[in-house]
Amino acid sequence: MNLISIPAFQDNYIWLLDNQQGHCVIVDPGESGPVLEALSRQHLIPDAILLTHHHNDHVDGVPEIIAQYPNLPVYGPQETGKKGANHQVNDGDVIEINGRQFITIAVPGHTLGHVAFYSAPYLFCGDTLFSAGCGRLFEGTAEQMYLSFQRLAQLPDETLICCAHEYTLSNLKFARAVLPQDRDIKTYQQQVEVLRAKGIPSVPTTLQLERKINLFLRCHDHDLQKKIGVYSPPQTLHSVFSELRLRKDRF
Prior knowledge:
Blueprint: E1 2-8, E2 12-18, E3 23-27, H1 33-42, E4 45-50, H2 56-59, H3 62-68, E5 74-76, E6 87-88, E7 94-97, E8 100-106, E9 115-119, E10 122-126, E11 129-130, E12 133-134, H4 142-152, E13 160-163, H5 168-178, H6 183-197, E14 205-206, H7 207-213, H8 222-228, H9 238-250
Parallel strand pairs: 3-4, 4-5, 5-6, 10-13
Antiparallel strand pairs: 1-2, 2-3, 7-8, 8-9, 9-10, 11-12, 13-14
């Protein structure tokens, strides 16, 4: 498989998963132009579109792509039904596209119906898990997002986090502000600064790396809890997550 990131808008990524036999899957096409151009340039035929949630910067390209490929299946949660999805997916559904399986994982928080699609090692998680960060809570609660993160954290270390925005540097700046002495965060910030200076995307990242540098995956960390003044037993770790999200919103 070949993973292709297509820059869109100011900081979005649209993903193509190319099976290297002339076919691909499109994930979260917020606009059609860059996708149609990439399909033409790479000589690819799309087999399906996957939508993680209903926000316009993830779905607005669907109508024009469908106009070019009228029989293309579009998979998405119920909330994307009016945004172009013609096949509704629910938690635990397994979609087979050209011999490859995609598992649907419900990850409410950013929106209530948000889903992720996992086809090892690729995780297309939309606006849920970002490198070194997490999505804003537009519809869901911090507890819901925390539980969504816990579900994703069960995936293997080698999982490739294919998120939909280039937010890594701003997320790392926040992480450094919270834990300025953390060597992993500092080192990775330096690495990403070099990448971005060259115009190279910072994603996909790996779940193994995110366990180290993503504060939202470290709510159990006592040093982190001490830094933000929230001490929680395991059953209420979502309160740590909530405080981190509030601080990030104000950062």
